[in-house]
Design brief:
This protein has 59 residues and is mainly α. The chain has 2 helices and no strands.
Length: 59
């Protein structure tokens, strides 16, 4: 998945995004290319937003 195809304001759960982050690292073999780094950064932001939403919803 390219960074351009990542949804903004995604409704995915933090667990789903975390799984995608793990898969990215596995595919990359532990070393990210510039494109993979950009995708990783977007995923981390999405994960943090999803986690924050889950915490607020639980409260």
């Amino acid at each position: 998945m390219s960074p351009d195809s990542l949804p903004s304001g995604s409704a995915r759960s933090a667990a789903e995004v975390n799984e995608q982050i793990r898969a990215l690292w596995l595919r990359a073999g532990g070393t990210l290319s510039a494109q993979e780094r950009a995708e990783y950064e977007l995923l981390v932001v999405e994960w943090a937003e999803a986690l924050r939403g889950e915490i607020i919803e639980a409260a």
